[in-house]
Amino acid sequence: MKVLFVQKEGGIFGAENYQLKVIPGLIAKGVQIEFLRLFTNYQGGQGGEFIDLLHEIGVTTYEVNIGRYPSLKSLRKIKSIVKKGDYDIVHTHLIHADFHLGLIKKIFGLEPKLVSTKHGYDNDFTSRYGFDASKQRKTPYFLISRWAEKQMSASFTISNGLRNFFIETGLTSSEKMKLIHYGFDMPEYHEQKGMSQYRKAEKQLVIAGRLVGFKGHRHLIDAMVEIREVYRERVQLLIAGSGQLEEELKMQVANLGLEENIGFLGYTREVGAYMANSDIVVIPSISEGFGVVFLEAFAAKTPVVAWDVPSANELMVNEETGYLAKAYDVKDLARVILRVLENGQAQVSDAAYQRLKTYFTLDRMVEQTLDFYRNI
């Protein structure tokens, strides 16, 4: 079986990390994978770390500059790559790839089967409404997504929360869209517990992820006001990551007088060590297509506190493998964090670790992806 992966890439985030895990797994099972990277000069440019990493695992790559809007020139280039490759399946990821390959299928025809993975949805929408399907209107993003999905032979999402959203909004049907949870062989971050350089306070919280709206940093910063009232200088929140909201969040911290209790680590490759040496990993995302950060926290054997929203309430069982606060209720978020700081139970993080090792595995994800391909 020969498969072409297609995605617009301008940095290594959730979907890109998925590619770097699932592609070697599929290759090991005998699938021949090649990768077409769509890029723009204003976001990423040609080449880069992601392409280098694909080359390291022996993947043949192609690149096409798609510009700001689709053009016949770029569509013909993509069509030529697909035709010469003699692929059985073209597998698209994220909306730009879905739309461009959908256009090629509609305009020129496409011999290979066209399938798609949905790693998430419109960040602007999910930052405001999460996966509340009742809030969706016929926006350009919605209309493009729905049209592109109609061109697919089949597709799958990475969580039930995301799948339900696509079905409830009419973006697809339950028959057409399958579910394959992420599964990764995570590093054993818990082995780094006790490393003092990653511990900044007696009580330590950590949040990891891009500094963007739907990750919910602002809610956790608000909750820190109440948490500080209890622990004063003994508590510290570490914010790991960078992004467009960095200056806004730093201003919020200053306005609340929390500079002594909240530290910005910036982008760091040591997230696992900080998680392992913290008391809680807080994930106050308004919504997550999946949330690899949950698996990282499970691997660190550190308890997670999150909102009771998709996909947190899909990946964790409250009081069994994690802790869920009332959705978007800052006071309840603070209450749950304080309770876990005072009475955190090791069996909860141990159970989450066992769930990671028995279900959220790379081998299971690869096998389900192979089954998906075979059914196509």
Overall geometry comes to globular
- CATH topology grouping of the largest domain: Rossmann fold
CATH architectural category of the largest domain: 3-Layer(aba) Sandwich
Helix vs. strand class: alpha/beta
Determine the strand fraction and express it as a percent band.
15-25%
How many E strands? 13
Adjacency order of strands in the biggest sheet: 3-2-1-4-5-6-7
Which oligomerization state do the chains in this entry correspond to?
single chain
Q: Report the CATH C-level class of the largest domain.
A: Alpha Beta
Helix content: 40-55%
pLDDT averaged residue by residue: 96
Q: How many domains, in number, for the residues?
A: 2
Runs with pLDDT <50, length 5+?
Answer: none
**Helix count from the secondary structure assignment:** 15
Distance between the termini: 12 Å
Order of helices and strands: EHEHEHEHEHHEHEEHEHEHEHEHEHHH
CATH superfamily of the largest domain: Glycogen Phosphorylase B
Largest sheet: 7 strands, parallel
